[in-house]
Amino acid sequence: MIDAPSDGETRIVSHYPPTILELIHRIGKLPGIGEKTAERLTLHIIGASRAEVEQLAQALIAVKEKTRTCRQCFGLSDEPLCSICADPARDNGQICVVEQATDMVAIEKSGAFRGRYHILQGALAPMDGVGPENLRIAELRRRVDSGGIQEVILATSPTVAGDATAAYLARFLAGPSLKISRIACGVPMGGDLKFIDQATLKRALDGRHGI
After folding, report:
1. Does residue 22 form part of some domain?
2. What is the residue range of 58's domain?
């Protein structure tokens, strides 16, 4: 049964048959997909070959059946260990800590880091009931305690929750032989200073370094 659209939403043209309306409704539930986009994607699927539609359906089923969290870094993987954790060429002495697997992907695309990762699966948010016990912090502690880690890079988001998480981890992991660093934040490459917000400018000035 198809839910009635909420106030303010454009109503789907009623002459579509129920099967099409159902697919539009299901696609429209995906984040970032509006009603018009859902309608366009549905019509594209209808026009595609049966083989293409079956491949799409098989890919959706496969991702639900096979995708899991890596047992070491807690990123997404089809195997017990993700490709990064299983790569012997990565630097075992560095761990980059991020909030979500998508953050790890963003760093990987930059090509700037060749160490290991640890995905917290969130950030501290006491008002929302998210404390240290709800994140993969205990597992990070065990990885550090197992030895061989020289540096932990805290790459949580530059938000209130991300900064609070980084500050907590810096205290929690502090040790005489462990370097703990925080990724730099500030003015983006190509940014025009007159368009940069005050908080970002302050962070850039506080984090200035010699050249």
Report:
1. yes
2. 18-66
CA 82 to chain centre: 15
How many domains does the chain fold into? 2
Separation of alpha carbons 75 and 119, rounded Å: 6
Residues 123/99, Cβ–Cβ less than 8 Å: yes
Query: Is it the case that residue 198 has pLDDT exceeding 90?
Result: no
Instruction: Indicate whether 58 pLDDT > 70.
Output: yes
- For residues 163 and 123, give the distance between their C-alpha atoms in angstroms, rounded to a whole number: 9
Distance, CA of 160 to CA of 201 (rounded, Å): 16
Q: What is the DSSP string of 18-62?
A: HHHHHHHHHHHTSTT--HHHHHHHHHHHHHS-HHHHHHHHHHHHH
Distance between CA atoms of residues 168 and 171, nearest Å: 5
Find the distance separating the first CA and the last CA of the chain, reported in whole Å: 64
Asked if the model's pLDDT at residue 136 lies above 70, the reply is yes
- Where residue 5 falls among pLDDT bands split at 50, 70, 90? very low
Long-range contacts of 105-114 (CB under 8 A, 24+ apart): 107/155, 108/84, 113/153, 114/89, 114/90
